[in-house]
Amino acid sequence: MMTMMLITWKEILRKRVLLITVVLTLLFLGLYVFAVSQITKSSAACPNCNSLMQSYIQSLGFLSAGLYFANFVVAFLMIFSSVGTLSTEIENGILLAILPRPIRRWEIYFGKWLGFTLWGLLYAGLLFLALLGIVNHYLHFPIDYQSLGKALAIFLLIPLVLSALSVFGSSFLPTLGNGIALALLFCLGLLGGLLEQLMSLNAHLGTQMSKVGVITSMLIPTDSLYRRVTYELMGGSDLPLGGNVSQMLGPFASTVIPSNSFIWYSLIYVVVVLMMGAIYFTRRDI
Amino acid sequence: MTDVIETRDLTKLYGTGKGCRNISLSVGPGQVFGFLGPNGAGKSTFIKMLVGLLQPTAGKAQILGLPLGHLEARRKIGYLPELFRYQDWLTGEEVLRFHAKLGKFPSNRIDKRITEVLYEVGLEGRGKERVKHYSKGMQQRLGLATALLLDPSLIFLDEPSSALDPVGRFEVRNLLIKLREQGKTVFLNTHLLEDVEAVCDHVALLFHGQIRQIGTVHEIIRPTPVWELKVGGFLPELLASIAALTLIPVSLKSVNSDGSAVLHASAAESEQIGWLNHLLFEQGLTLYEVRPLQTRLEEWFLALAAEESGTPA
Hints:
The structure holds two protein chains of two kinds.
Chain A: H1 2-14, H2 17-45, H3 52-82, H4 87-91, H5 94-98, H6 105-139, H7 145-170, H8 175-200, H9 206-219, H10 222-233, H11 245-249, H12 260-283
Helix pairs in contact in A: 1-6, 2-3, 2-6, 3-6, 3-7, 3-8, 6-7, 6-12, 7-8, 7-10, 7-12, 8-9, 8-10
Chain B: E1 5-13, E2 19-27, E3 32-36, H1 43-50, E4 58-63, E5 66-67, H2 71-75, E6 77-80, H3 92-102, H4 110-120, H5 136-148, E7 154-158, H6 166-181, E8 185-189, H7 193-199, E9 202-207, E10 210-216, H8 217-221, E11 226-232, H9 238-246, E12 250-255, E13 261-266, H10 270-282, E14 286-293, H11 297-309
Parallel strand pairs in B: 3-8, 3-9, 6-7, 7-8
Antiparallel strand pairs in B: 1-2, 1-4, 4-5, 9-10, 11-13, 11-14, 12-13
Helix pairs in contact in B: 4-5
């Protein structure tokens, strides 16, 4: 399993995935710094315009927005880097030489998953901390280690879910089909989550639409996990933020908060998806 | 000593009905076994079952006395797939090191072994180049090196000479001979019948997923020696009397208007042909040429294939 994990890392390095990711991430962070610094300048021009609470909400909004786009970046990085990890190697015959070696197929499966997942976790973690550092530096977002720790841990569940889904899909779908399926599934989760957020503000539509949100969250929990991250960033609702904070944060807000049970569901989801993929890959013909 | 490969009614059928069915064969230690058949006959399917890539639909098989797919058996086999690629972002040496680690080869011996196998397949000095810069022939050689890497006692080679130029094919044939001399058991899928003739002890012909013939190369190539006789002054009515007198099968292959003809006679013993010559002479025929026909594997292969498809060879 370690051998497969290490070769996966080598692949990420040799195929310049790391290099391209680092360069584009620096661009992303640069743009983010630029936007946040502009806000800082406009706030400095009118020191009495914002109350402390308003400044906090502003910084929270920026952090939530940054994490919303970081969620996209992490998702597409995880999907596109691992989408063909098994299917491409089956299609071009690389696995024909590997599978007869004295190594169990599930070790190959988990080795590859672990390789992409550790890489994804490292990237997502660093991106989260970079965004947090920027907002803290420019907008003085308060550091509460407990809530930030929870938010980071839940944010890291997003690449975990996506890598499990990607390697699972790669075990039985062709590379292109898997890529399209995952991208659409991810967007479905976003749309379901967005509709749920919007409709929860309207009492007449809330019940029906929240069912849609629940179903899409069950299919792919990534958007709900992001919502839970923003909730944790607000100090787990311990702060007296007032009822209109959701409107102020716009689409990055969490009006419907996923429960702790949902976090457990997401973890079980990862385990079940991984097990299903490993069992299928172990039994399938190559 | 038990057989290295033993299969009993091993079957793999795909949804299309293709595959291979009821394959029963045994390959003893040190044998070089040729597995022949036209494209799509099911040869690769059979090998893939043996190395654990495909799950059999029915039947049983053992490799080195262990069930198919057993890790211990897989530790002792080498496999060169027919249609394969290696990670083109690795160097040749890195590919081999990766496979050595997968095979749990002692880490202190890996470098030495890599140098040895690269030399054996003619890739010495090229190991540090990326696979993407290798030609198809070099990739094939790297495939051979990977198959030999763990010093396996059983080697499956699926079309090892494909993509190789004539020199490469000659080198592969020499390598096969060397492996045979080392006492390795080799299961060889190939279209190159001269390879089979040169290096195989046993051979099987697969057609439409089923074994049509199996035996030693000697038995199959020369079931009964056939002799060709070119005669003059031949009359068609003589044929029956000649056959009756000699008690050996004699057939007319061609006859010309000038009375010259070509006859084929199957005779296990040379003395029978001597006796036939004498009788032909007595019948007043002129004997121009008598020579034994070597039934080559290609003729056998084509004859069987033609028999299967119902067309003349």
